[in-house]
Amino acid sequence: MENGLMRNLKERCKSGNDKVYSSSFIFRIKKEDSEFERFNNLIDKAANANQGFLGKERWVNPKENKKAVTYYWDSLESLKTFSNHPDHQRAKQRYKQWYYGYEVIISNILTIKSDEKI
Fold this sequence. Notes:
Alpha-Beta Plaits; 4-stranded antiparallel beta sheet; 5 helices; 4 strands; 41% helix
């Protein structure tokens, strides 16, 4: 039942030779309009075009009006390339239109444990 992304990430961690980094973008929604969706799609395309991009997950916490997107990367260089992408930079300049606030957490993933049932 375990999804393919987690299986692949777990294998990378298990090998000991391959690194896995994550960047979690957590935000409180103010407004989702057509421009938000357009930038969201452009950012997804930028991530998918990055050779070091391993995948992503999205989470929603409606009770606290929060959303999160966790991107997985094979290197910090790939993450920096994504972060510096022109579409990503343009969206960051306009974040106050769409978010009440945000935080970004960068992590080096050492291991992934699972009972493989989610």
